[in-house]
Specification:
single chain, 275 residues, mainly alpha, two-stranded antiparallel sheet, 2% strand, disordered C terminus
């Protein structure tokens, strides 16, 4: 599939979130169920000894691609179903399947390296944090003391920066393999170029998400605090997180459609116009 690399203005980043919300509201239960299914699969993967955590990270490219396929289907008034997570692998040509699997393995190994680097910069602080969180009861005073250490902040800064740099080449790569039939390395390059060309929109996109999450968090804390229901607010944090996570993955299709165009009309994908 021939595709045209496009550029959009910074303001389009906020519209990606808005369009994602509008599409989510068309199929809220179907999209939420799709993300819940991934969480269930990730939970089962975590039960595997030694490789469970790595396998979870390797599943992320298929998560983003599965949501893009499902979201594109919903845009065209098609179904949203669980098999859309697996269709890109099961129905792909051998070359595409190898490219997708290569992206999964490369992403998993790269993120694992970033996590190791983060913990190394933090002088093992994050490993110690996870050990403390597994204790019953959780020693909150030790966790609070851990976070005031300078190495933890340095580790968080290095980890966030490295993970952002890793995300850029992988952002569009699975979709480019699936729809444009690109190889793994070509897809990583194309994704990097597309994100760079639309960098203003992606900055606004990230800021919009940050503002949305911060606003919802502050409002819920204030509301339940005023009502004296602080514990209920903690309980509702889980469904709120599920909603925001699902909404994020639904919005991915708009970042792709606005970053790429195609020559000719194909039933697989209909690219939306740039703002």
């Amino acid at each position: 599939m021939a595709m045209i690399l496009k550029t959009v203005g910074p303001g389009r980043g906020a519209l990606w979130v808005r369009d994602g919300l509008q599409l989510y509201m068309k199929r809220p239960m179907a999209f939420t169920g799709l993300f819940a299914l991934f969480l269930l699969l990730a939970l089962f993967a975590a039960l595997l000894p030694w490789v469970g955590g790595l396998l979870q990270m390797m599943m992320v490219p298929l998560l983003s691609l599965g949501f893009m396929v499902a979201s594109q289907s919903a845009l065209l008034d098609g179904p949203v179903r669980a098999t859309q997570f697996f269709d890109p692998i099961l129905t792909a040509a051998p070359a595409q399947r190898r490219a997708l699997l290569a992206l999964c393995v490369l992403y998993g190994l790269t993120v694992a390296a970033v996590l190791w680097l983060t913990d190394w910069v933090a002088d093992g602080g994050y490993t110690h944090l996870f050990e403390l969180m597994r204790q019953d009861p959780t020693p909150l005073h030790e966790i609070d003391a851990l976070f005031v250490e300078r190495s933890m902040a340095a580790g968080a800064l290095v980890g966030t920066t490295a993970l952002t740099l890793v995300t850029i080449p992988f952002w569009h790569a699975p979709a480019l393999v699936h729809w444009a039939h690109q190889g793994a390395l070509q897809a990583l390059f194309s994704s990097t170029l597309a994100v760079w060309r639309c960098r203003g929109a992606f900055v606004v996109y990230a800021l919009t998400w940050f503002t949305l999450m911060l606003t919802l968090g502050v409002l819920s804390a204030l509301l339940f605090g005023l009502l004296g229901l602080a514990q209920l607010g903690s309980v509702l944090a889980l469904p709120l997180g599920l909603f925001l996570s699902t909404l994020f993955y639904v919005s991915l299709i708009f970042t792709f459609n606005d970053s790429f165009g195609h020559q000719g009309q194909l039933p697989e994908i209909e690219v939306t116009r740039s703002a």
